Structure formats: structure tokens, C-alpha cells
């Protein structure tokens, strides 16, 4: 078992009489992994980082660091460093002094500081930039200085608050790669914040999807992409078709006016549900070969695939990603495998969802 480094137990944060910012949040962070907090602006991501760093205290609940409660431990006594979105570098200091700053405050020996600063700069590929003014560094280079300044302190955890959002797309991809590599080499726990779902999927060992101060779902990128537990997650992560339907019985679901075999079970008979079908899981066929028929209302070429939008007889909209071309105005058929249908219950919590999934695997092992 990997060991837990940070734990939140029923943490709530509220400023004055304002609406609750974090609502009874519980989670565990394991040592040495890359975590991402993903969610729309204002959902509480930065607040979680500030609570971990000790810049603010929870209104209620407990925060543990290596098993010890740290609610009252000030920021400078925690083994945590933060990389801020705007880098927060000292503009009047050169690269070397920016990175050395924290070590000087700790009154470390000059020779020791020199060794550590050079090591940190080499980690972020900035050897030879020691004497440069911060103003003369590009956005990507400033980002690297900010990271060097965090790792030079050898913290147990590095918090990164949307560190890439100011960079242009190409540099952003490159820095995603570098950050991930850096985390692997250092073996330090990274907690990274973004509102960009692609970035989260590409970089993380574990993702926490957050909305309105609550963790909606946590898991590996694959778990979350393949088995979103509710409409918010399905909608926020990747593109989805979300269709209203009814769970007729175990393994039989009805939507778009038809019944289909599916792999889900454990709901009530005739329970109203929503199904998710990913656009890339739909195959285009002739109308009579299709399980569902749609009329194509628009088509865009996206480089690797066509993005086809259509509507079925019941008025549901369908997005399809296909290497085959369709024609606007034409009727086409759609085929999909039972495994492509993801059934979601209304208001199912992550805990209840996990329990239901566990019962599937138990059944499977029973059968063997
Ligand atoms: N110091 C503060 N005082 C009052 N409200 C705050 C304060 N800091 C954050 N908030 C509110 O808490 C909510 C979550 O903010 P934040 O954690 O910064 O979201 P995110 O980082 O996900 O965009 C927002 O509605 C924000 O206005
Ligand atoms: Mg924020």
C-alpha cells in the first residue's frame, strides 16, 4: 500500500455568511503521485491548495499531513511549496537569487545554497541562466524559475495553481511534458490545478473532478473518462452524448425510443436514468443497419475525424466522431456496442457508485 501524505476529513470552508466554498470535502493524497484538481472557475480548487499550504484554515473538519493534524500549523512550518499562476517571482532579483531566496531565509551556508540552486536550475534545464534578470526571461523560462524555486526547498509536496494557463498552446504542451517528467524524476507529490480537462487527462495519475465545492468524482484519467458517474463529469470530461432514458431491468436500457442490451445493473426496474455515449464509440452505417437513425444537421472536419451532429426522431442530438464522411440533410444509422453505453443514476454519490461497481466484479468472479 502506498502511504497517505495528505488527508482531508469532512473539510468545509466558508467566508463569513457567503455561500459555502468547500462543502464537507474528504480525500486522501498518496505519496509520490501526480494529482490534478480539475473543475470550472470558482469551484474551490485554489481554496483546497490554500488549505493544504496553510494560507487559510478550514471552517470545520480536519487536515492531516503524514498522519498529524495540521489545522493550526502555519504555512512556513509545512513541507509544502506553491507555484503560483502568475509565478510570483521577484522582478528585481536575478534568476539565481530568486531560486536562492528561501534558502537564504533559512540561513543556509553559501556553499550549500550554491550547490542546491545549481541542482534545481539544472532540473528545469536552466543551467547558465543564473545571472539573467527575471525581466529578460520568456514566459516559459519564468515558469521554470518558479518551479526551481519550489523544488530547491525539497518539499514533500508541490502545489501548482494553474501554472501553465498563461502560456501559448505549443509551449503549454511542452511544459505539460516537462512537468510530468520532472515529477517522475523527483518522486515528489504534485498537486496540480487546472480547468482544462485535456491537460488533466494527459498529466495525472489521479484526478479529482470538482464542482460547486464538492468532489464529484476521483480516479485515474481512464476511470473518469470511461465511467463518469454523473452528468457534470460526463459533460466536463471529453465530449459526450447524454440522453434521457429508463433502466428497464438489469442489462436492459431504453432510450431514443428503443431498448438496448447494456452492461449496467443494480438499479430499480423502470428507474429513470441518463445514458452517456462517447462520440468516438458511435459507428456510422446505412440507416437500416443502424441501431438508431439520425438526420445529419452539421459536419465539421477536425483533421483526424469528422465531427457530425445529427438529431434522432425523438429530438435527441447526437455527436459522432468518425473518419467516414456524412452529408448534411441525409439520414444515417448509428451502431454501438453494449459496453459503449454508460448508464448514470440521478444523484448517485461516488461512494454508492463505487459500491455498485464492486458488486459487478464480485458477480464476475462468482461466475468463474
Ligand atoms: N478570501 C475570500 N473571501 C471570500 N470569498 C472567497 C475568498 N477566496 C475565494 N472565495 C470564493 O470562493 C469560491 C472558490 O474560489 P477558488 O477556490 O479561488 O476557486 P477556483 O480556484 O476553483 O477558481 C469563489 O466563489 C470565490 O469567490
Ligand atoms: Mg483558482
From TrEMBL:
One of its GO terms (cellular component) is ATP-binding cassette (ABC) transporter complex. Keywords: ATP-binding, Cell membrane, Membrane, Nucleotide-binding, Translocase, Transport. It comes from the Bacteria. PROSITE patterns: ABC_TRANSPORTER_1 (PS00211), ABC_TRANSPORTER_2 (PS50893). Its EC number is 7.6.2.11. The keyword Cytoplasm does not apply. InterPro entries: AAA+_ATPase, ABC_SmlMolc_Importer, ABC_transporter-like_ATP-bd, ABC_transporter-like_CS, Mo/tungstate-bd_C_term_dom, P-loop_NTPase, PotA-like, PotA_ATP-bd. Belongs to the ABC transporter superfamily. Spermidine/putrescine importer (TC 3.A.1.11.1) family. The complex is composed of two ATP-binding proteins (PotA), two transmembrane proteins (PotB and PotC) and a solute-binding protein (PotD). This is Spermidine/putrescine import ATP-binding protein PotA. It comes from Compostibacillus humi. The lineage of its organism: Bacteria, Bacillati, Bacillota, Bacilli, Bacillales.
